[in-house]
Each structure stands twice: as C-alpha cells, then as structure tokens.
Amino acid sequence: MQADFSRRTFDSLKHFSAVLAQQGRVQLDADANEQAAILLHQLRTTVADLLGPAAVPAGEPGFRLHPVLDQRKITDLRISAGRLYVDGLLVENDRATRYWSQPEGYLDQEKDTLPETGPFVVYLRVWERLITALQDPAIREIALGDPGPDTAARAKVVWQVAWCAGQNADDFADFRHSLNPEPGLLAAQAKHPGDTDACHLPPEARFRGQENQLYRVEVHTGGRAWTDSAPTKESGETLHGATFKWSRENASVVFPIVSVSGATVTLGTLGRDSKLDLDVGDWVELLDDAAVIRAADDLPAKRRPKPAPALRRVVAIDPADRLVTLDGELDERCGPGSDADLHPFLRRWDHLAGDSKDGAVPLVENTWIDLEDGVQVRFEAPPRTSAEVAAGQPGTYRRGDYWQIPARTVTGDVEWPRDDDGPRPVPPHGVEYHYAVLGVVGEDGTVTLPPDSFEPLFRQGPNPTAPAPEEPSPPDDSPKPSTEIDSPPDPPDPVVFAAEMSTAHSPETGSAAPARSPETGSSAPSPKPSTGSAASPPTLALSASPPKPGPSNGSSSASATATLAPPVEVSFPAPEPVHPPTRTVTEPSTSDPETTSDNPPAPSTAPETTAMTHPTGPLGDHLTSWLRTVVPGLWSALVAWLVSLGLPGSVTDAVAGLGNQVIVPLVLAVVYALLRGLEAQMPPWLTRILLGSNRPPSYAETGADRHALG
Q: Where is the composition biased (Low complexity) (predicted)?
C-alpha cells in the first residue's frame, strides 16, 4: 500500500505470534503494523482452515446470483446481501445490488457487458485497498488544523463481481492461471559509486544518502518482460513488454485535485516542503477511486500488452494559484478529475526517464537496473521446471504488483534477503488478489455451483422446559402404545420427542389407561391444574434419551419415555395467590372427575397419603418463619413506644416498672393477633410490609404429625 511507512517487517515464515513493546523504547510504525499483520494472518488462516477457500454462512448467505432476463437475454445479475469468506477474508455486501450497480464496480458499459446467454462463470475478486484522508476526510483529526496533517491510514477490503468464459470450476482455474502464469521475481542491492567523491555526485542522483527511504518498484503495464535489447518509444496500441515505475517515498506523495481544464490541473496543495513537493520534469499519475479500482483488470499476460493509462510529465508550475501544467491534454468528461465525488488526486513518481509509450520504464529481466544513488533492482523469471518453458520464455508481471526496498544511511545499503549467491529474488509483496466462484450461469439462466454454506459451530438448542399441556382431545377407543410430539418450527431443525406410553395395571382389575395414537393424534384426557389439592389421575413421567439417527433430513431428535403411575395425591399451587393460603389436608380419591370413558380406571390399592399444599416463593421456609416473627415484633415495639408517648405522666409513672414484663408482651400479642386476623383482607404488598412475607412457611412432616393425623 502507498502510505508513508518506514518499512515492511512482517514475514509469515518467521512465525512470530506477537510484537512486545519495551519500556523506554522508541515506538515505530513498523512494529504496530507488524502486530496488526500477525493478528490478521492468524485470524484469516484459521478461518480458511475451517471454512475452506470460499463459504457463506447459512444464516446470511451473501452473493447469491439471480440473472435478469429480457426476452431470454441476460441483461443484469441480482446479487443478494450477506457475507462471504474468501481465503479467510470477511467480504460483506450490506444491501442487495446488481452487477451494473455494485458499489466498487466502476464498470465500462462496452468492455464489461454480460453475455446474452450462458454458459459463463461469475466470480468474485477480493483485495485490500489503502484509504487515506483524501478518500475519507473523517480520518483526519480536525483539531490538528484545517486542513491539518493526516495521521494513520486504513486498509479496506474491496470486492468486485466479474465474469469469464467457461462452464465449470476447471475452466475458471485455467482462466486464473492465464492472468499470471509465471510470476516474475525481483532482487535489490545498493551499488556504491566507487571512487567518485561523495561530495561531487552527478546531478541526476537525487537521492544523496542523507535520509532513510522506502523505495517502491511497481508494475505499470502488465504482461511479459521486455525482450528488446534497446527499448525505444513505441508507436501504435501495444508495447514490446511490461513496464514499471518507482518512488523513493513508497508512492505516498500525493496532491488532491480541485479541477482539470485541458492540460492544466488545479491542486489543493503543492506539498508540505521541498522534499514532498512537485518539480518541473516529474512524472505524475492522475487517479481517482474508479481508476484505482479498475487497476485490477484481470487481463491475461501477453508479450505485447496494451499500455496502461499513460503517466504525465510536469512542464510548468504556478505556486501562487497551485496550477500544474502537464505535457498533454486530459479528458475533462470522464477521466480522473472530472468527478469530485471520486476523490481525484495526483501521485508523484521519481523515475527520470520514461522510454516507453506509457511513460514508465521498460521491464527487462536478468540485468541490474539503476534507480538512484547506487540502488539497483533486477527482474528475473521464476525457476523453470520444464524444457519448454526454459527455452527463453520471460516471466509475467501483473499491473499493480510491487516490491518495497528499505534503504538506510547508517549501513549505506538496502535491507534485502540474501543467500550465498547474493540478493535473493522474491515474488511481489502485493497486491494479493483472492477469488471465489459465485456460480455458473447456464443457457436457460439457471445458476449452478454456488459457494458452499456452513452451519454455526455452536447453536442454541431447544428449550429444555416442557411445553405447556394442550387441551385434551376425545379419547380413542383403542389405546395406542406411543405418541410423537413435534417441536415448534423455530429452530428450523425440529426435535421430535417420542413418548412411549406404558399402561399401569391395577393389582385388582388390571385395567389400563388409554394413550394418544400416533395415527389419529387422540389421547386420554389429562387433569387440569388447580390451585387446591385434589385426587389426580395417572401421572405422566418423562425421561430424556440420547438422539437417535433417523431419516429426518439430518435434524436431531430426542425421545422421552412416559409411564403411567397409580393415582396419587398431587397438588397444583397457584402461581401468585392474592390471599394467603391455608394449610389443607386432602384425602386420596379413587375416581377421576374428568374421565369421560365408560370404563374408568379401577380404584388403586396404594396406601393413602396426605398432601400439604403451600405456594412456593423466592424465600426459604426458615427465613420466612423468621421474618413473620421478627417483623411483627418490630411493629409491636414501635406501637408500644408510640402509645407510651401519648399517655399522661401519672399513668407512665405508675406502670414504669411493668414496661418490659407486661406492656410490651401485651402490645405484641394484640398487634400480632390483629395482623393475623386481617391478613386475609390485606393486599400482598401490605402483607409483606407488616408480616415480612405474604405466605406462611411450610414445615417438614414428622412422625408425630402423621400419628396425629390418624
């Protein structure tokens, strides 16, 4: 990225896990940037290992294609909103869009037209782009001045939907290989001027070794390396090979464009100082958002490529009006600078001789090319593995590929990896493009081969709470052995509970209660909840079992066993009683009051039991009993004190010795009896205030209690 960096230090082959700051040390931009690169590398590698090269989440499947047909001709593509992971990078489409209106498309109405009929492959191209305060003014801190200095830059994930000929994934793989079949390499070194006096360097050597620099060598026109021994200016629409440009400031010297008129450009600023300004003779490039995005052109590498947009040379500068005159007329209608919303700017490059048609330097392999002040670069083809390729075939270079070369004054050299043979040729440091097939559009407009989808690793399971009982349905004449209860539609994978009903036979008659039939859905009547206690019919006990595989489209299932127990005494407490409940003792019943069958179950011979029902609350029984004793006592003491304040002095003197022995217990008894007597008429909130709790405590039943109950 073309920002003002000191150097690039991240190397995945070193397997660093973190950057650790030390006290009292200088903080460098390279350290912070390496920490961010380490985290991104770990995160994206993990996601790619889990999801593969491309996948969409099942809940947010983004980038689904829907062709738009007009008289059976494809005119556009609908692209759904959602997310897609490509090589671990999160790619987001915030809202549904179309091929011609995609946010980062900037398509050419003639060159990017879709085929009228299939088949063809639609794919996604993803990379990261640099965003500075020129593209997003919100990045600049206005408190530092208006306009003030910029601070940090941003990296943005950019995506584009494109297409290529083909009808399957193999065709797309061949297309990708054709873009850069033999990626070229570059090596760098610092060549000292020999016996030349350092104080009398030639004037064309603009880098005099007084400052550290980060050189950037970038491919301007992509294609195969130049094969002519003596490159000259080209005529026509093609070049004899790829070209490159270079900058000593990592191409970070840029100037915002205000307007364009013919060959004159009005700039917002001419730079902060003489080191970062413009001079006559400089090579510049006019860019905006559309031009930067369209640099990723996906053109197959050719020996005679079509030139990229030509670089311009500065021929005059008017500092007062910030006017810059270039060596050629500019397109005022659709070129960079014609639309202020696209954030146009002018970028300075530092090479002096542009020998090719596009204003850049011809890219020649296997020879050292001088940049300035002894810094040299050498392009090489990748290692050959076959005899056919080894027969003089040059390497391929893609437009926008770049290498960064730190030069340091302390060592008088460049920082570059070396081996026994000298500087080691390395592949480009960027731009790194990522691709994913979105689908293959057939002749009839159908889309096949969409990206794979994945389910979340962890999903919230069904609510373990048992569902509310349904209203009883009329009983079936013949009892059925089991029933199935379908879960609600959310979550989408239903969980089916199979309840196996076993009949409970009476010891005397052996009669059984009917169960719900899986065919008809009928079931035996079930008792309704009540606030008091009553004899209950046979109860249903559920026990969960592990899921069993079955032909239910991969959905999980669970089963529960239901067993009919003999009639026992049960109680159904009210959820929030208004009046304080009373302790009740119920006798067991041998008949079901809601049974509509002609043959009710036989009386049970189980021993009779008693049930004491009390509503449950958030407080325990011990704390409830303590509160219902202490709180009325406190109210009684308050009443006794208030009463004593209102009595005449003669009365208080006469009963002064009886306060603790007579008056306080008497008042306590009167107040407590009054509160308990009025408890049934008081609302719950007043009961809590005066008695400490609106429910009486329940006590464990003892043997003496059972004996007293008979």
A: 533-567, 586-613
Q: How far apart are CA 252 and CA 275, in angstroms?
A: 12
Given a contact cutoff of 8 angstroms between Cβ atoms, the answer to whether 222 and 301 are in contact is yes
CA distances from residue 74 to 78, 164, 445, 448, 614 in whole angstroms, order as listed? 11, 15, 7, 16, 73
Q: Rounded distance, CA 415 to CA 9, Å?
A: 10
User: For the chain, how big is the Rg over CA atoms in Å?
Assistant: 43
Task: Round to whole Å and give the CA distance between 130 and 132.
Answer: 7
Contact 477, 80 (CB under 8 A): no
At what angle are helices 684-691 and 621-646 packed, to 10 degrees? Answer: 80
Residue 430 pLDDT > 50: yes
DSSP letter at 426 equals B
Name the nearest CA neighbour of 538 among 467, 599, 601.
601
Which secondary-structure segment (H or E) carries 644? helix 621-646
Distance CA 594, CA 488 (A): 29
309: CB partners within 8 A, 6+ apart = 285, 286, 291, 358
Rounded CA separation 501/509 (Å): 19
What whole-number distance in Å separates Cα of residue 374 and Cα of residue 372?
6
Contact (Cβ atoms closer than 8 angstroms) between residue 669 and residue 632:
no
Which of 63-72, 323-332, 378-387 has the highest average model confidence (pLDDT)? 63-72
Q: At 175, list the tokens.
A: 């297309």
Rounded-to-integer distance, Cα 303 and Cα 241, Å:
6
> What CA–CA distance (Å, rounded) separates 235 from 29?
44
Distance from C-alpha of 359 to C-alpha of 239, rounded to nearest angstrom: 12
Can you spell out the DSSP letters for 238-269?
--SS-EEEEETBTT--EEEEEEEETTEEEES-
pLDDT at position 666 = 75
Whole-model pTM over 0.70: no
**Cβ atoms of residues 470 and 504 within 8 Å:** no
Q: Is the pLDDT of residue 519 over 80?
A: no
> Three-state SS across 563-604?
EECCCCEEECCCCCCCCCCCCCCCCCCCCCCCCCCCCCCCCC
Written in H, E and C, the secondary structure of 596-626 is CCCCCCCCCCCCCCCCCCCCCCCCCHHHHHH
Residue 181, amino acid: P
What does the pLDDT read at residue 630?
Answer: 77
Compute the distance between CA of residue 381 and CA of residue 661 in angstroms, rounded to an integer: 111
Among 478, 471, 483, 560, smallest CA distance to 521 is for 483
Name 497's Cβ contacts closer than 8 Å, sequence gap at least 6: 484, 485, 487, 557, 558, 559, 560
Residue 709 has pLDDT above 80, yes or no: no
Q: Tell me how far apart the alpha carbons of residues 269 and 376 are, in angstroms, rounded to a whole number.
A: 32
Tell me the per-residue pLDDT of 144-182, one tens digit each, with 9 for 90 and over: 887 777 889 999 999 999 999 999 999 999 999 988 888
CB 343 within 8 A of CB 135: yes
The whole-angstrom distance between residue 347's C-alpha and the CA centroid of its chain comes to 34
pLDDT digits (tens, 9 = 90+) for 610-668: 444 444 455 566 677 777 777 777 777 777 777 667 666 666 666 565 655 666 677 77
| Residue 603 identity | P
pLDDT of residue 569: 45
Where is 558: in which H helix or E strand?
Answer: strand 558-564
Angstrom CA distances, 312 to 42, 284, 321, 371, 465, stand at 42, 5, 20, 19, 74
